[in-house]
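Fresh eyes needed here. I'd like your take on this protein's tokenised backbone:
***
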Amino acid sequence: MPRQETNVANPATITVLYFAQVAELTGQRHESCPFDAPITGSDWLAQLEARFPQLAPVTRLKLAVNQYHVPHDTLIQPGDEVAVFEPVTGG
């Protein structure tokens, strides 16, 4: 019997989506990252800044977890989808 593909993320990873200038600065629009334990958004952003120093200061960046805007103290869980983007301003 052929194996069925699913759209479920590997629970030992997170899917990261980068938007606008964040995508330009990282050089990618998305990636799958190994991820085996919950971590706060703040701590995860600090790790992201270590990988991509050009994103500094990451405290200005916004997060969405599983398509919901969240504060930086939100726990990111293995299997989550995390979007990273610049704050939006109007005028």
About this structure: The first strand starts at residue 13 and ends at 18. The chain is about 20% helix and 30% strand.
